[in-house]
Amino acid sequence: MRGDLIRVLSTVEEKANELKLDGYEPDVVLLGKEAYEFIRAQINEEFGGEEEVFELSGLKIRTLDELGGDAVVIDSKALGLGLGGAKRFKVVL
User: Against a cut of 0.85, is the pTM above it?
Assistant: First the structure.
């Protein structure tokens, strides 16, 4: 399942770079419960163990049940101040 993990990490980095190009400073990845469990299973399968995951590609992880299988890369300082500051993507296909 290495391909799934690489896909997720690539997408996180892609969305973070898009935000940076728009002038934001992404610092958090919001993950739905399903998305978090999927990523955690992939990482633990790849590296062994049953560890919790606290960051992806240098961004802190926060879980938000309402997102389900999706994730959102955000700039926590800019979110809610207007349009922008967040990029959403599907983790569990």
Answer: yes
